[in-house]
Amino acid sequence: MNVTKTILAGLVAVSSVFALPTLQLDISGGVYNGSTETVVNTSNQFDLIALLNSSDYTGTYYISMAVTPTISMSADIGSFDFNGTPVSIADMHYGTPPVALAEVGELPTHGIFPTYFYEYAFSFSGDRALPYNVENNPGSLMVDPAGTLYYQAFTVDVSALNPNYGIHFDLYNEELKNNKSKLGFAPFSHDAEASYITKDVPEPATLSLFGMGLLALGSIGLFRRRR
Questions:
Q1: CA–CA distance, 184 with 15 (Å, rounded to integer)
Q2: 20 and 131 Cβ atoms separated by less than 8 Å
Q3: Do the Cβ atoms of 106 and 183 come closer than 8 Å?
Q4: Is the distance from CB of 45 to CB of 159 less than 8 angstroms?
């Protein structure tokens, strides 16, 4: 009986690995927004994590960072920092990614494109993690040399982003299938999106009460010293 359970558990684990998309994006500390079907940030500084489910991690991959909601004219979006590089509207292209792989097709518009976007090329370093599906377990990266996923992390800071805008992240590469090149990309349900997170600011009434409390403490201290 125990042997049967072990075999079944192994089959479930294997099937879950094969069910994973080839490409996914995740956000450290992120949550999954069911209405937008996207992993979103919960703080202004976070790691964007590219995930690759493949036996071969070589080659060039791309991340596009698109302005949302869609804009067709240059606008003051503020700026954000991607892996140490500040990015503003002046650094972006207008249209639909990719730029570098335009000859093999475009990303699905999925309500995001055309808009202004920034494209970043990178290669996976070979670091591995345990397999997981960001749609079910966002922010669950577990580094493991024996893992079956390759991952690459990038630091992102949206503290200077205009609160009226967000940044939608897509991950893609050039695939060779049947001796033909095509655009491979993370499904829309496995993309990521970030916006400026407003810090909680005390209401005026709360500040007044806090000030009155300080005055009261000061009066008590003065009274004690006079005694």
A1: 22
A2: yes
A3: yes
A4: yes
- For β-strands 192-195 and 38-40, DSSP reports them as parallel
Write the DSSP assignment of 71-110 as a string of letters.
-SS----B-EEETTEEE-GGG-EEESS-STTGGG-----T
- Check residue 177 and give its pLDDT: 67
In terms of DSSP bridges, do strands 166-177 and 61-68 run parallel, antiparallel, or are they unpaired?
Answer: antiparallel
Strand partners, 132: none
> Taking a C-beta distance cutoff of 8 angstroms, is the pair 31, 195 a contact?
no
Joined tokens for residue 174: 């050039």
Residues in CB range of 80: below 8 A, 6 or more apart: 65, 86, 87, 156, 157, 158, 160, 161, 167, 194
- Give the model's pLDDT for residue 8: 37
The beta-strand segments (E) located in 141-220 are: 149-157, 166-177, 180-185, 192-195
Q: What is the per-residue pLDDT across 178-214, written as a single tens digit (0 to 9) for each?
A: 678 899 999 999 999 999 998 644 444 444 544 555 4
Q: What is the mean pLDDT of the chain?
A: 85
> pTM for the whole thing?
0.80
